[in-house]
Amino acid sequence: xxSSSNTRLIWVSVSLSVLVTVAHADRxxxxxxxxxxGDLGSVATDINDLGVMTGYSSxxxxxxxxxxxxxxxxxxxxxGALVGHRNSEGRGINNVGTVVGNSQLLPFIWTQxxxxxxxxxxxxxxxxxxxxxxxxxxxxxxxxxxTNSEPIPVSWDDKQGVHELDLLPGGFQGEARRANDxxxxxxxSDSMSGRRAVLWQSNSVTxxxxxxxxxxxxxxxxxxxxxVVGSCRGRNGEQPFIWDSQTGMRRLRIPSYAVExxxxxxxxxxxxxxxVRSDSGVNYAVYWKNGLPVIFNIVAPKxxxxxxxxxxxxxxxSDQVSGSWVQAGRxxxxxxxxxxx
Length: 341
Prior knowledge:
- By secondary structure, this protein is an all-beta fold.
- The protein has strands spanning 11-15, 17-18, 27-32, 41-47, 53-58, 65-71, 75-78, 88-93, 99-103, 106-111, 115-118, 127-133, 139-144, 152-157, 161-164, 174-179, 185-189, 196-201, 204-207, 216-222, 228-234, 237-244, 248-251, 258-266, 272-278, 283-289, 292-295, 307-315, 320-327, 331-340.
């Protein structure tokens, strides 16, 4: 087990502005996740409603990773890896602190009581990852073949063990990415028309479609109300979308300087988070409120050259955000953020 090298937690205030119309005075309060002793970087991948995060700390920025959990009271702690493995990543966490993820391309589940154990795989698969676990204990992710190819969407629960989710007609691969507390699951499936964002609910799969002029779509997040967010890919890159059963799929605006973007999660309150990419290839974490994108990392001028909040991965029902920032183009840190309006 590793211990945190950051024992003192420091809040940072960051100014935000809307880059579509006029600036407004939102403020982001941030708390750094730190790194495990001996590591160089960390990434926060998910946050529960109590503000506890999971992710990984890495010895070589994005290699030699160690799955971890973080809380304000206990700081950053390693949750280890499966026996014989050196690399692991936490991908999802629920309100009782159950963590799921992957350990050298094998899906795992971890609890404080039972530790880390392998999740079962379909008989013809030997790898994969668990991407999310909801408060009902349903885990979702994907399973792959021997060559780490042809992923199929799967779910895990205590009653059925591993369950293969249906694909769209003509599809042979897919992935489940998130599940809400009503056991509605989102992700993607191949189809006769190409890759499509899908919703699995009540033992059926629904094609969420694609924005006009785009070739494919994937769903990344869903809230308790069933609103889905994700992105569509076309000739010029990705564009974020929001979908609900009443109005269907709608495009989310991105800042004028951005060439593409994707939405990753949505809260109960309808706050959408994601990432946009500038024409120079730099990623910036954003959130959308009332249809307008707000960039997280408009900070003091002296920090602009070295400090970029490049990723927003999850948002809880208190609108707390997990994500990651990078300094000097190299050193990464996970963070917990809260937008103060």
